[in-house]
Design brief:
Strand content: under 5%
Radius of gyration: 16 Å
CATH class: Mainly Alpha
Order of helices and strands: HHHHH
Helix content: 55-70%
Length: about 110
């Protein structure tokens, strides 16, 4: 087997691992087994390339409107990967999102 084929197989295995871990994290967030800070603030390797909107929209009651409001309030573009956000923005996003989960959009007033 050529080195190029081995490298390709290794890359495919890694991509599948990332997709699987990310799917488990999203399912746990949706079910309430994990908190948002584990996905955003701690930002494990497999979550670094996940888009902010993709992670937030799995939370109960978070649709396009709430996502836009949170992004606007925090000054964060929702289409960027979580890993590209500075720690301060990730912390702000986590706090605001958890407040909105508890209190609804009134938390943004």
């Amino acid at each position: 087997m050529s080195p190029l084929i081995r490298q390709r197989e290794s890359s495919l295995q890694h991509a599948n691992w990332v997709r699987s871990k990310r799917a488990h994290m999203k399912a746990d967030l949706r079910a309430g087994k994990r908190r948002l800070r584990e996905a955003v603030l701690a930002c494990p390797d497999y979550m670094r390339t996940a888009r902010v909107a993709d992670v937030l929209k799995v939370l109960p009651g978070f649709g396009p409107y709430k996502l836009r409001r949170i992004g606007s309030y925090c000054g964060i573009e929702l289409s960027v990967p979580i890993g590209s956000l500075p720690l301060a923005h990730r912390a702000d996003l986590t706090v605001v999102s958890e407040e909105v989960l508890q209190d609804g959009l009134a938390a943004l007033s």
